[in-house]
Write a structure and sequence with these properties.
The protein is mainly alpha-helical. It has one domain. The chain has 3 helices and no strands. The longest helix has 43 residues. The relative contact order is 0.08. The model has no long low-confidence stretch (mean pLDDT 81). The structure holds zinc ion (ZN).
Length: 105
């Protein structure tokens, strides 16, 4: 249970979610803030907006992580292809190496 001053001061105002059209400079918008009094857990958002705020953040982090991983794999594939090409240009037959070695016995 949160008891910090900010939380206790803001809690009576209800869900602090600001509508997408809200302009903080003029404090105006079609939906200035949700204001729903039924707050989710220890957040300053109602259940609907808590899901939106917190899931949105983690989804973005996950996407950044996936993008970095995809970039790393792409780099790996690119390096692999370059190495294969280099070996083949040097006359090395990468895929029939075993056959060649056997036939030399
Ligand atoms: Zn809300």
């Amino acid at each position: 249970m949160r008891r910090d001053a900010d939380y206790l001061a803001l809690k009576p105002l209800g869900c602090s979610y600001l509508g997408p059209t809200y302009d903080p400079r003029t404090h105006q918008g079609a939906t200035p803030y949700c204001g729903c009094k039924d707050l989710y857990a220890d957040t300053l958002y109602c259940a609907e907006h808590a899901a939106l705020m917190y899931v949105k953040g983690s989804a973005l982090r996950k996407r950044h992580k996936d993008t970095r991983r995809a970039d790393a794999i792409q780099q790996l594939v690119s390096d692999f292809n370059a190495a294969v090409e280099e070996l083949e240009q040097e006359g090395f037959d990468l895929y029939s190496r075993d056959l060649v070695e056997e036939s030399m016995l």
